[in-house]
Amino acid sequence: LFFRSQPESYRRVATWWVMSAKKAETRERRLATLVADSAAGRRVGVATPAQD
Fold this sequence. Notes:
The chain is mainly alpha-helical. The protein has helices spanning about 1-5, 10-20, 25-40. It has one domain.
């Protein structure tokens, strides 16, 4: 629900982040991170603007 409620640009970046990993293990780890963060209502760090 959280992931689908996010803007398309975020979903695109988050999906790219998972799929751009060269190793299957890295893709699996990133996907697990994305799922866990989405379940907690958080965006993954790669798609979150930096806080100055």
